[in-house]
Design goal:
CATH topology: Rossmann fold
CATH class: Alpha Beta
Strand order of the largest sheet: 1-2-4-3-9-10-11-12
InterPro entries: AB_hydrolase_1 (IPR000073), AB_hydrolase_fold (IPR029058), LYPA1-2/EST-like (IPR050565), Pept_S33_TAP-like_C (IPR013595)
Protein name: Phospholipase/carboxylesterase
Number of strands: 12
Number of helices: 5
Helix content: 25-40%
Oligomer: single chain
Radius of gyration: 15 Å
Shape: globular
Largest sheet: 8 strands, mixed
Order of helices and strands: EEEHEEEEEHEHEEHEH
Structural class: alpha/beta
Organism: Microvirga subterranea
Strand content: 15-25%
Length: about 210
């Protein structure tokens, strides 16, 4: 596993060990880093190439991918800027490592920035797994996501993401043409074994 810093984000890259699997872009939650989701990736997509950047925004010393004004209230101007910045990094990394467009696997804050990239720079991603995602932009631009696969996994008792907010995100992405599967699990904001099982099955059929 090599840690590379010469691109625009501190990140880790792990080359594929199996052909035919899409590369994964791993996007951590608040307070995570570029190592956070690597163990998860072995369970959901063994053999895939992995690209795992560290969020550049610090909130009380904890890395995030964009600023928020308070819990559940995002600085949407910053969301837009950071989504563009992340899409530029994906393009750099694809060139540097010879990757096809990755499937984002994001948790919480990482899922929210992945959803924003889908809405602002759809060509950057081949698809996305959004674990505990919320609507990142209240007024997203019209975008064509025709046929792009998206899995949204929500927790029925998540204290941070209201169920109707997650449903609205699914509806927005479906309305833009994405092929969305929205799964509600009997869990909270943290990830469970069921998340891994659902995600692995979804990635396996891509």
């Amino acid at each position: 596993m090599n840690a590379m810093t010469e691109l625009s984000f501190i990140h880790r890259f792990k080359p594929a060990t199996e052909s035919g699997r899409p590369p994964l872009l791993l996007l951590h939650g608040t307070g995570g880093n570029e190592d956070d989701l690597l163990p998860l990736s072995n369970m959901i997509a063994p053999g895939s190439a992995l690209l795992s950047p560290r969020g550049k925004v610090l909130e009380g010393g904890m890395p995030r991918f964009f600023r928020r004004l308070q819990e559940g209230v995002f600085d949407e101007e910053d969301v837009r800027r950071r989504a563009q910045e992340l899409a530029d990094f994906i393009a750099q990394a694809r060139e540097a490592y010879g990757l096809s467009a990755p499937v984002a696997v994001g948790f919480s804050n990482g899922a929210n920035i992945a959803a924003a990239v889908l809405q602002l720079r759809p060509d950057a991603l081949a698809g996305a797994v959004l674990l505990r995602a919320m609507v990142p932009l209240q007024d997203p631009p019209a975008v064509d996501l025709a046929g792009k696969p998206v899995l949204i996994v929500s927790g029925a008792s998540d204290p941070i993401v209201p169920a109707e907010n997650a449903k609205r995100l699914a509806s927005l992405l479906t309305g833009a043409g994405a092929v969305v599967r929205h799964q509600m699990l009997p869990t909270g904001h943290g990830l469970s074994q069921a998340d891994l099982t659902v995600t692995r099955a979804w990635i396996d059929q891509l």
